[in-house]
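ok so i was messing around last nite and threw this chain in just to see what happens. nothing serious, just curious
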Amino acid sequence: MKKLFLLVVMICFAGVVKAQNIQLHYDLGRAMYNSLEGRPWVTTTVEMFKADKWGSTYFFVDMDYTDKGVSSAYWEISRELKFWKAPVSAHVEYNGGLNYINNAFLAGPAYNWNNADFSRVFGVQVLYKYIQKNAKPHNFQLTGTWTMHFCDQKYTFSGFVDFWREKHTDVHGNNHDFIFISEPQFWVNLNKFKHVNDDLNLSVGTEWELSTNFATRNGFYYIPTLAMKWSF
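result:
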């Protein structure tokens, strides 16, 4: 899950109202934890953001790969409505995927802040979350997002943090009611360096998945990746 709603920062710098990127992640989880020996090595992410006069639309699709092909998929799509001057938007969202991931529907207010040059952007969402077929389907989710550019946009630090309630059982049969996950990303944007063509929209970097009781895991996990990103 990437949830980088703050792609809007790049959009503001570029002077356009839409942006897309494709990411390739080499996942180191199975090398770090014996309990993740079946975890795929490779994940691709496709993201799209588009703003219009009524607000903005965002989605991403994650796909995991083994030597047999695609082993799992997950996607999120959200819509923010804001045709007024207040910094608070109305947010609606859908989450879903393969491999026993229940449909989830979310709605609530979203607050976004940026500094004058959009080099620092932060967002907070307070959401009602309905998880279909869950033993306790009515839940909540708190989300924070950020994007920070450094050194004339040569470097970008971005990501999200989610905390939500969801009744579930881990691989050892322990019951849990809450899940935490954060995925900070750090990117080196090559076309912002001297003597690199402006059209080379390639970034290299890393993502760190930090989670507690996520999916069927028990306790805290730290899973880094090595990554590349091409922006359109």
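not much to say yet. Residues 5-231 form a domain with the Porin fold (CATH 2.40.160.40).
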